[in-house]
Structures are given as structure tokens and as C-alpha cells.
Design brief:
This protein is mostly helical. It is built from twelve helices and no strands.
């Protein structure tokens, strides 16, 4: 339970009964990232499903996505904005690293964050209430599963928080984390979990290679960017299933 509390404390603003010393106890918390993602997705999806019954679906989608941002404190959005600024404006690794350390958001960062919010809100708002619930859970759980995979296989950069966490990820953590992610993703979206996992692996590989070339390794901001890309892409997948009339994600409805 200590590891789960640590994961909740890191990934959300939800009071988990943790202390500062427990935040430093990293071992065993990474495997729970997908479960925390599923809980966040359940909150987002439930708000959308209920809101879409009373409000225009796009408005409900915007509200649900913004609630998700408040639950996480914009942790992953901040990472996406930082790497957009650094990768978009930096020429060499030294300049990329310098921009990455700047807490201010530049043009690339603002555009990336705004674009991700618009895409996620629009995609969620194009689905039926129950399909939106299913894909919100799948998107959030798979986004955090991608982070676990990236932490296990990609070269960590420097000695920051991400590097400290990455150093604790064992093969058992990877297997448990991916197992939780795939299992919960399948419960939420059925057969679409296969496509979700493919999206996650593709994003981890592409963004990992980009980070290695641009920065020399994977930082916490890169991990946040990976989560955002995966989450957004899976919600777009859900929107496409609704548009094309394919097998609906909410197989349990």
C-alpha cells in the first residue's frame, strides 16, 4: 500500500496520507502508475458520461478534461509544454537542456498544451456517454502504462526525479505495471486495448529516440509528453470508432 500511496501522491493532487519521507520511498510505486491512471480516467469518464446527458457533448468533454487536469495538477501537460519548447526551439543538446530548465512557457509550449486540450476535449465530446467513459479510462491507464515502459527501457537523463524513479523499476515492476494496464484497459475498452497498446509502444519508441537525439536521454518532462501523446491519440481513436461506426469501445454496455 505504501507504493500505491506514493504513486497517488506523485501523479495526482488527491490526499493519500503520504508524508515527505514516503515520497522519497520510490521502490514499488511505479508499478501502480496504470492503476492511478485508471482512477483518473474513471473520474474524467464519469463526469463526461453524466455531463453529456444534460449538456452539449463538446461542453461536457471540455469540462471532463479540465477536471482531469485539476486532479493531476497539470503534471503531464507541464511536461508536454516544456519539451515542445525545448525540442522546437533548441538546436543542440546544451540549448535544449537550457530551455527545458526554464519554468516559463514559450510559444511552442503554449501551442502544444492548448492543442492537446482541444484535441482531447473534441475527441471525447464526439463519443456517446458510455463510449467516452470507456475510452477515457483506456486513454489514462494506457498513458501511464507507456510511462512505465519508457522508464524501464529508455536512458534516464541526469539525476532528477525521473532518473531516481527509473532506477527503481525492475522487470517485476514492468510486468506488473503492464499487466495492470492491459487488464484494466481491456475491461474498459475490450478488443480496442490492442490498438491502445500499439499506440503506447509507438509513442514510447518515437519520443524516446527523439529525446535521445535532442537531449541525450529521457527526463520527467519527456515522460509527461509521452503520456499526453498516448492519451490524446487513444481518445482520437475512440472518436474515429464513433465516426466510422466500428465496434464500440463500451462493449459492456
Amino acid at each position: 500500500m505504501r507504493g500505491l500511496r506514493g504513486a497517488v501522491t506523485l501523479l495526482t493532487r488527491i490526499p493519500a496520507g503520504g508524508t515527505a519521507s514516503e515520497r522519497g520511498a520510490l521502490a514499488g510505486s511505479v508499478r501502480w502508475f496504470p492503476l492511478v491512471g485508471a482512477l483518473i480516467g474513471l473520474v474524467v469518464g464519469t463526469i463526461y458520461a453524466l455531463g453529456a446527458e444534460w449538456l452539449p457533448s463538446l461542453v461536457a468533454g471540455v469540462i471532463a478534461v479540465l477536471v482531469g487536469v485539476m486532479v493531476t495538477g497539470g503534471l503531464h501537460e507541464d511536461g508536454l509544454g516544456d519539451i515542445a519548447d525545448a525540442f522546437g526551439g533548441g538546436i543542440d543538446p546544451a540549448e535544449v537542456a537550457r530551455i527545458l530548465k526554464d519554468p516559463r512557457q514559450g510559444t511552442f509550449g503554449v501551442l502544444a498544451i492548448a492543442g492537446a486540450l482541444i484535441v482531447r476535449s473534441g475527441a471525447l465530446g464526439s463519443m456517446s456517454p458510455l463510449d467516452g467513459l470507456a475510452m477515457a479510462v483506456a486513454a489514462h491507464v494506457t498513458g501511464r502504462t507507456a510511462v512505465v515502459i519508457a522508464m524501464r527501457f529508455q536512458r534516464p537523463l541526469g539525476a532528477g526525479l525521473a532518473a531516481n524513479y527509473a532506477g527503481t523499476v525492475t522487470t517485476v515492476d514492468l510486468v506488473v505495471g503492464v499487466g495492470i494496464g492491459v487488464g484494466l484497459g481491456a475491461v474498459a475498452s475490450g478488443i480496442w486495448v490492442v490498438a491502445c497498446l500499439a499506440i503506447a509502444l509507438t509513442a514510447v519508441r518515437i519520443m524516446g529516440r527523439l529525446a535521445l537525439r535532442k537531449l541525450g536521454g529521457t527526463s520527467g518532462d519527456v515522460l509527461g509528453g509521452i503520456e499526453q501523446v498516448v492519451e490524446s491519440a487513444i481518445l482520437v481513436l475512440g472518436a474515429d470508432t464513433a465516426h466510422e461506426g466500428w465496434l464500440r469501445p463500451a462493449w459492456w454496455a
